[in-house]
Automatic annotation (TrEMBL):
InterPro entries documented for this protein: ANTAR, CheY-like_superfamily, GAF, GAF-like_dom_sf, GAF_ANTAR, WH-like_DNA-bd_sf
Organism in which the protein naturally occurs: Marisediminicola antarctica
Gene Ontology molecular functions: kinase activity; RNA binding
All residue ranges annotated as the ANTAR domain in the record: 170-231
Claim: Kinase is one of the keywords in the record: yes
Key words, A-Z: Kinase, Transcription, Transcription regulation, Transferase
Keyword field contains Transferase: yes
Pfam families cross-referenced by the UniProt entry: ANTAR, GAF_2
Full protein name: Transcriptional regulator
Domain of life of the organism encoding this protein: Bacteria
SMART domains on file: ANTAR, GAF
């Protein structure tokens, strides 16, 4: 019964994600939906997504919590860790026990354990020969993902890749670059808006993001547009 229920939820998630791939869809909203669905469906404590710009510079573009975002930022700062390796190799990278990575990624080990994560699973965002980022799943317990979960994670990562590049952008590099840059610029605005809300409401960054996202969803607005309005003070939440 649990398996059937999860399969139904996974199918519903794919329908939801597919429905967003229409004219005028916003990449950041799509990716926010995807990381939250990934964490819920794949029994992860948190999920995040890193994305490369046209120069190959990686940024955290979506995350379900400040905990996972901090671990990803640390990896990007030093250029080392499972999420970065996943992007560089285009292969799934699994850390079944963070405590046992030894001297390979000491900074990652320290940061992950500090945030309470004991295993990490990174899945590349790739379409044919193009790798543009990685979907990262963080768990509070040690262990590997089941084959079923790995297949589901790959499928979710594929949806994200298609959503960013879209079919026609494989042949239109300028369009692809604009999509990627738009996503990166939107993330900057969202982080700024989170800071404004955290400061004005005296809440943490996770609560600030939930306020931002809930307002956008309840009013049928794009997350980027709400963030921009908060930053320029034309909207007070």
């Amino acid at each position: 019964m649990v398996s059937t229920t999860r399969e139904a939820r996974l199918a519903a998630t794919f329908v939801t994600l597919a429905d967003t791939l229409v004219a005028g869809y916003d990449v950041v909203d799509l990716l926010d939906t995807l990381v939250n669905a990934s964490a819920e469906l794949l029994d992860a404590a948190a999920a995040g997504l890193i994305l490369a710009d046209e120069a190959g510079e990686l940024s955290v573009i979506a995350s379900t919590s400040e905990r996972s975002r901090l671990v990803e930022i640390m990896q990007l700062r030093f250029g080392l860790g499972p999420c970065v390796e996943c992007y560089k190799t285009g292969r799934v990278v699994t850390v079944a026990d963070v405590d046992e990575v030894g001297d390979k990624w000491p900074d990652f080990r320290e940061a992950a354990l500090e945030q309470g994560f004991h295993s990490v699973h990174a899945v590349p965002l790739r379409l044919r020969g193009t790798v543009i980022g990685a979907l990262n799943l963080f768990r509070n317990q040690t262990g590997v993902m089941s084959d079923e979960d790995i297949l589901a994670a790959r499928a979710l990562a594929d949806i994200a890749t298609i959503g960013i590049l879209h079919e026609r952008t494989l042949h239109e590099s300028d369009t692809a670059k604009r999509q990627l840059q738009h996503a990166l610029d939107s993330r900057v605005l969202i982080e700024q808006a989170k800071g404004v809300l955290a400061h004005t409401h005296l809440v943490d960054m996770d609560e600030a993001f939930r306020t931002l996202r809930d307002y956008a969803r309840s009013n049928g607005l794009l997350l980027r547009n709400v963030a921009e309005a908060v930053v320029n003070r034309s909207l007070v939440l």
